[in-house]
Amino acid sequence: MDVLQLQDVVKQYHRHKAVDEVSFSVPQGSIFGLLGPNGAGKTSLIRIITTITRADTGHVFFEGEPLNTAHPMQIGYMPEERGLYKKMKVGEHLIYLARLKGLDKATARQKINAWLEKFEITDWWNKKVDELSKGMQQKIQFISTVVHEPRLLILDEPFSGLDPINTNLIKEEIFKLHQSGTTIIFSTHRMEQVEEICEYIVLINKGQNVLEGKVADIKENFKENLYELEPLDTLPTSLEEIATVVNERNGIYKVKLTEGVDSTNLLRYLLDHGVRLRAFREVLPSLNEIFIRQVNQL
Ligand SMILES: Nc1ncnc2c1ncn2[C@@H]1O[C@H](COP(=O)(O)OP(=O)(O)OP(=O)(O)O)[C@@H](O)[C@H]1O
């Protein structure tokens, strides 16, 4: 079952089509990357999903039902621009935001305390938001996004401004939420984070869906028959009959197989020529390479 389904969604601002007939589905329990270059239409899509704005045409379904104004209670959205009130105290602010998401005061207090304890920041309760650093505010924003235990979590650049320790801390919590069944839409320009975190992606460019699917399948579809080998012996010159050396660094060769040659042929060739190997592996394209290739194509 899909938590979210978008069908032919269009959003136009004046004469500009920010979202142009976009369709995709977010599987239940997945970590789903919503990717695209600047101005692609990601925020416009998120604002439609969270009912901040409406699509001009098209359909959005949340857990199979047409999206309605009750659904945002099941959604936690952490926008890229952080929106905390600077003059409020951390504790009262978190309670205020939790109550907006439908929690009663006692439950809100209990859940917020549990999160502050988890992050070892219980002493922040009476601090004003503007006394906190950017990274500290980010932690508070994260808590406010997850405190009502949403079934769908939308995180826009959740690690921007965080140091490596706090990045890991938040990442671990995201994984725990995922393990407990929360579906997560993750929007970022950091492709290495997408590789590490996401199982599915959709790539939006100029308002259109240009690529969608499982990360593993996408990488498989974009592979270019490249292999990396680390020989202990000199490579024979006749290797060029079955593969071209693309580059060599510190004794590690990247080779591209000739059309019609497969990895078994290459391995057999190397063994037949007495080449001993320390390493041999297929090189799949990175999401970064795929992203740049797809975006530049259009
Ligand atoms: N309220 C608005 N009024 C007019 N144009 C808008 C509005 N919001 C977005 N746009 C335009 O729609 C397009 C898509 O913007 P959007 O913010 O959805 O992109 P994005 O993918 O989130 O970009 P980024 O990665 O830079 O945050 C852009 O050309 C932007 O200028």
TrEMBL record:
<dbReference type="GO" id="GO:0005524">
    <property type="term" value="F:ATP binding"/>
</dbReference>
<dbReference type="InterPro" id="IPR050763">
    <property type="entry name" value="ABC_transporter_ATP-binding"/>
</dbReference>
<keyword id="KW-0536">Nodulation</keyword>
<keyword id="KW-0813">Transport</keyword>
<keyword id="KW-0547">Nucleotide-binding</keyword>
<dbReference type="InterPro" id="IPR025302">
    <property type="entry name" value="DrrA1/2-like_C"/>
</dbReference>
<dbReference type="InterPro" id="IPR017871">
    <property type="entry name" value="ABC_transporter-like_CS"/>
</dbReference>
<protein>
    <submittedName>
        <fullName>ABC transporter ATP-binding protein</fullName>
    </submittedName>
</protein>
<dbReference type="GO" id="GO:0016887">
    <property type="term" value="F:ATP hydrolysis activity"/>
</dbReference>
<comment type="similarity">
    <text>Belongs to the ABC transporter superfamily.</text>
</comment>
<feature type="domain" description="ABC transporter">
    <location>
        <begin position="4"/>
        <end position="231"/>
    </location>
</feature>
<dbReference type="Pfam" id="PF13732">
    <property type="entry name" value="DrrA1-3_C"/>
</dbReference>
<keyword id="KW-0067">ATP-binding</keyword>
<dbReference type="InterPro" id="IPR003593">
    <property type="entry name" value="AAA+_ATPase"/>
</dbReference>
<dbReference type="Pfam" id="PF00005">
    <property type="entry name" value="ABC_tran"/>
</dbReference>
<dbReference type="InterPro" id="IPR003439">
    <property type="entry name" value="ABC_transporter-like_ATP-bd"/>
</dbReference>
<dbReference type="InterPro" id="IPR027417">
    <property type="entry name" value="P-loop_NTPase"/>
</dbReference>
